[in-house]
Amino acid sequence: MDSYYVGFVVRDEPHFLESCSLCRKTLSLNSDIFMYRGDMAFCSQECRQEQIESDEKKAKRWRKASSSSSSSRSKNSVAGKTVRTETLVVS
């Protein structure tokens, strides 16, 4: 049983509060840590903001790609009608 706990403590990746998620600068115990999305720590507001902007750009590209692929699917559907497949539960 001891070997399980010893193996569990050893890890390849550093703890998320040990370094900035963007620039990898070591986070000090005596300085502010700026958090984003619960498990991403940053050394400064600037690093945090850069990550937020990067994520927003990725999300925008994903939404754009998703909407263009869904519009091409609707062109291939029967008479261009939308079929809803959700289930409504009423109690």
UniProtKB/TrEMBL annotation:
Return the Low complexity bias intervals.
65-81
Pfam families cross-referenced by the UniProt entry = zf-FLZ
What broad taxonomic lineage does this protein's source fall under?
Answer: Eukaryota, Viridiplantae, Streptophyta, Embryophyta, Tracheophyta
Q: Which family does it belong to?
A: Belongs to the FLZ family.
ZnF FLZ-type: positions: 15-59
Domain named FLZ-type: residues: 15-59
Organism (species)? Eruca vesicaria subsp. sativa (Garden rocket)
What name appears for this protein in its UniProt entry? Answer: FLZ-type domain-containing protein
Which domain of life does the protein's organism represent?
Answer: Eukaryota
